[in-house]
Amino acid sequence: MVTRFVNRRLVLLFCVALSLWGSVSLATQTSPLADDLYIYTIPTLPLHEPSTVADLPVPPLSESDSPAQHDADLDPDAYNNAHFQWKPALQQAFFFTGFMHGYRLATESQTRDALNGHWWRNYHRSIGELRGWDDGDTFMTSYIAHPFEGAIFGYIEQQNDPRYRRVMWGDGQKYWIARLRTLAFSAAMSTQWTLGPASEASIGNVQLRDSPGFVDLVGTPIFGTMVMIAEDVTDRYLVAPLENHTANRPVLAFSRMFLSPTRSFANLMAFKYPWHRDDRLGISGENNKLRREMLRDYEAGSGGKLFDYTPPKKSSGEAPRYPLAAPVELESSTHYETFLGGGSCVGGSGSGAVRIKPSLQLISEVSGCLVVNMPKNQSGDSMMYQVGTRWAPRATRRVSPFLQMMAGGRRITHEIDDPAKRDALMKEWADGAGPIHYPKREDWSVEHQQNGLALSAGGGVDIALGRAFAWRVGNLEYTHSWLGHVDQIHAANGLRLSSSLVLKIGTW
Hints:
8-stranded antiparallel β-barrel, flat
């Protein structure tokens, strides 16, 4: 008990010291990068540059301010051939990951306790436990905090992507390409956070003590992208107009941080002020003086707005021609499956498809569902992982019927909980009179599980919703699994009905 107390205090002190060190490091940075680097290059495209800015005298350039840099800031095509900055992006992403682990170690005794034991064995077992949808977290954690995490990873990608660093809501195709790139980076880093070598599975073995669901793997990047879009819309229609009417530094800083919290946190991960913006004039120092002068000219009618959004100009020449049938498709679906031996389940899936011929695709899919109408304190779930082909002879039409067949594997799990035993173990642990280590799920539950080969075949209809999306109205499939009964779950044969949204890549 004394050892446990000392360990808790040492870890807490270490995390506090680390936070203080980070704060001091930020506070003692040299001249503010956000204000000094962009004094004479903002406003920039796609924001309209008022004529008053062009007429302002430009002082001699410092060593870090080359003419090429200034020209690039005013040229919307200057970064078209720039490469993604992998090194700083990964440094910032893993710094954020370390920050989150530090918080968990400081506030969760069960996470600190899991540092004891055989690391590889517990890590491997944690990954193997992944199943179902829910992970036992509260609504606030799963659907608010984790999407914010995904958005922070997304903005870390954007601030290290020179070609798309300054996109704004309204930039059309370029904006959506930027969001696809941030979605991919966020998905990779959030998967690392859940299952990777520096993850909740490896540091804390979360899946061994809580419900091991897929909600974070799916919700963190997808809902995080939605958070980014919401912040971009807010920035375009609330923050930018506000900056046309005030030079008050607290108001500007608060509006940028409060209305774009995840972008602000991503700035901190790059050791920048949270109110820093790559496409905006700074809020203090010489920037503030310039802002006040421009505001006076605007109010007097002798100058234009500081920030006046203009859509990006279409490039001259022949417009690019895109295929009508998407080379790549990403699908997110919801489904209901009835087991012909009795029972049913509700869930969802994610899949990807690559077109190898005009009417033929290679597809892969991972799906999971929760068995419904289970007895109290019991739960059941199914997980399928398959690959196959899809035949769509009218893929270029607005209405496209298809047939598909996939093969792979299926895992059925039935878990029986003992809530009384769980509560007793938790109470004993909290009082210091119970087991040495934090109780795992296996200490108060019994799990029955079977794996087997699986096959599915069926078809449905797609309706194109423009060039970027399609609605898979219905997909009816017969499923067969070579596995026996798992207690009262009889999933050897079933019928599955699904509906999904399809993102088409390469058609726009």
